[in-house]
């Protein structure tokens, strides 16, 4: 299936920025059972979290994402753990609004450069930022954020790449979220702390909603 488009790289980046800037928090969802997808999404949306990343890490991911898109209209669904062009095509076929990758191979970046679906490519080093920039990507996922050097690394990258902005994921949690978001080159932050596997497995939807409400209140106070 072709994913060619007339959209320019800057237009795709602008679309992604329009999605992420108001969101501030992007929960990373690993869904093991299709039946959990819709109630989980509803719990997050009820707590004020509308932009969701459903990872391609499980067999249930695609069907769960499809159900969320169909049944939770307020959710803005992106697909994560996109590893290659085939994954990007799958994400677009599902109706996802964006895609997220943990890293970025030349093949994935080349495919994404010709896709209608905005991609947030993952980077951890200056060389990886340069490879992404060469294909028109200036909005990137910084992953794994804490393990790759944390905020000191992000500040170091700001020097040679002043126009690049990041969505850190990996080690971001309720305690350090506001610190990450205070960095000038951070556009949003991702993580799984809002909906841990134990709560999803147990169907603790009200607890997940309450956690989201608390996170958003804390951000508004900053």
TrEMBL record:
The EC number(s) this enzyme carries: 4.1.2.14
Protein name, UniProt field: 2-dehydro-3-deoxy-phosphogluconate aldolase
Subunit structure, as described in the record: Homotrimer.
Domain of life: Bacteria
InterPro entries per the UniProt record, alphabetical: Aldlse_KDPG_KHG, Aldolase_TIM, KDPG/KHG_AS_1, KDPG/KHG_AS_2
CDD domains, A to Z: KDPG_aldolase (cd00452)
Catalysed reaction equations from the record: 2-dehydro-3-deoxy-6-phospho-D-gluconate = D-glyceraldehyde 3-phosphate + pyruvate
Similarity annotation: Belongs to the KHG/KDPG aldolase family.
Keywords: Carbohydrate metabolism, Lyase, Schiff base
Pathway: Carbohydrate acid metabolism; 2-dehydro-3-deoxy-D-gluconate degradation; D-glyceraldehyde 3-phosphate and pyruvate from 2-dehydro-3-deoxy-D-gluconate: step 2/2
SUPFAM superfamilies xrefs: Aldolase
Single GO molecular function: 2-dehydro-3-deoxy-phosphogluconate aldolase activity
């Amino acid at each position: 299936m072709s994913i060619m488009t007339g959209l320019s790289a800057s237009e795709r980046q602008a679309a992604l920025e329009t999605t992420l800037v108001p969101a501030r928090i992007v929960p990373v969802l690993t869904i093991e059972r299709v039946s959990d997808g819709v109630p989980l999404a509803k719990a997050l949306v009820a707590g004020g979290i509308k932009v969701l990343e459903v990872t391609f890490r499980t067999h249930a991911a695609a069907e769960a994402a499809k159900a969320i898109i169909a049944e939770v209209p307020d959710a803005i669904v992106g697909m994560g753990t996109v590893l290659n062009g085939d994954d990007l095509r799958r994400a677009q076929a599902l109706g996802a609004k964006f895609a997220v990758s943990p890293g970025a191979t030349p093949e994935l970046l080349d495919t994404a450069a010709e896709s209608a679906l905005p991609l947030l490519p993952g980077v951890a080093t200056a060389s990886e930022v340069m490879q992404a920039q060469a294909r028109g990507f200036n909005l990137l996922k910084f992953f794994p954020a804490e393990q790759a050097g944390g905020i000191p690394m992000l500040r170091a990258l700001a020097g040679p790449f002043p126009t690049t902005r990041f969505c850190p994921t990996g080690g971001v949690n309720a305690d350090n979220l506001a610190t990450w978001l205070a960095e000038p080159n951070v556009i949003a932050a991702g993580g799984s702390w809002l909906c841990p596997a134990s709560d999803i497995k147990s169907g603790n939807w009200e607890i997940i909603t309450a956690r989201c409400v608390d996170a958003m209140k804390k951000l508004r106070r900053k």
